[in-house]
Amino acid sequence: MFPFLLDKPGSAQEAIAAAAAGGRYIAGGTTLVDLMREEVERPERLIDINRLPLGGIRVEGQDLVIGALARMAEVAADSNVQRLQPLVAESLIEGASPQLRNMASLGGNLLQRVRCPYFRMLDVGCNKRTPGSGCAAIEGLNAGHAILGTSNYCVATHPSDVAVALVALDATVRVRGPKGERSFPVEELFRLPADTPHLEHTLLPGELILELRVPGGPHARNARYLKVRDRASYEFALVSAAAALAIEDGVIREARIAVGGVGTRPWRLRACEAALAGRKPDRQAFVEAAQLATEGARPLHHNAFKVTLLPRTIVRTLEMAGEIA
């Protein structure tokens, strides 16, 4: 480990000023500390934000509002989350081991770095770690990598499970920075790699996530998350899917679908959603809609199986969501 400075600001404004000057926020540290140990990241100044009043979970009308510092375990176990947004709770439980869920904050989970093994190998090229050094994954072992949203510079998947659920649910994020506050869809938090994969999110320098807002609605009752992985626990998704259905009089009035493990960011499937509107929630409708999920896919040498696995995962997730109705 290398030397660094640690600040513990007493207010959000102090934290933002320190971050704008080049510091890095740290909460649970479940990703950043590992990367610092491996010297993949070498921040000179850390800003511990755990003293800030950014936790808690509350209900406003139909909306669920979750503080950025709320721990994953706390959110998953909260009675209002389980009642109003069971998809969020399910994705959090699937997202990490109990020990990590006790430590990791919701805001930190959204901003965690990629789990591509080449990102952590200092002796190979990685454009995320060192811009312009190449992407070893493209010609390397890439079974766990993305087939959607990739570029010639990066093919790493976004690792967060709960981000997939939040994107499907049209959640928004509220942030504060040197220029004030703003809110925007969680989906817009994540960048595509293009030719700048080291730029992973759209936060401006110093901006701090304050809270997440998850809007309610009839779709939230019929919502499930399914994660397909190499082993039963503590493993990142090969393919995952979040599906929410608003069903009225035996007909799908609205569908929400997002997937993980296949995209360079949580991937919303609006074509699949549109194909389900007005249909009965049956297997034929689900299969036909799911076939649209792989449009634009660019499989690599070792991950072409995801082109088949993705539609199957979506179908099963939709069946699980439909069973609740």
Automatic annotation (TrEMBL):
Keywords per UniProt: FAD, Flavoprotein
SMART domains named among the record's database cross-references: CO_deh_flav_C (SM01092)
A Pfam family assignment: CO_deh_flav_C
Annotated source species: Neomesorhizobium albiziae
Keyword Membrane: no
One function term, GO molecular function aspect: FAD binding
Name used for this protein in its record: Xanthine dehydrogenase YagS FAD-binding subunit
InterPro entries: CO_DH_flav_C, CO_DH_flav_C_dom_sf, Diverse_Substr_Oxidored, FAD-bd_PCMH, FAD-bd_PCMH-like_sf, FAD-bd_PCMH_sub1, FAD-bd_PCMH_sub2, Mopterin_DH_FAD-bd
Annotated ranges, domain FAD-binding PCMH-type: 1-219
PANTHER family xrefs: OXIDOREDUCTASE (PTHR42659:SF1), XANTHINE DEHYDROGENASE SUBUNIT C-RELATED (PTHR42659)
The keyword Oxidoreductase is annotated on this UniProt entry: no
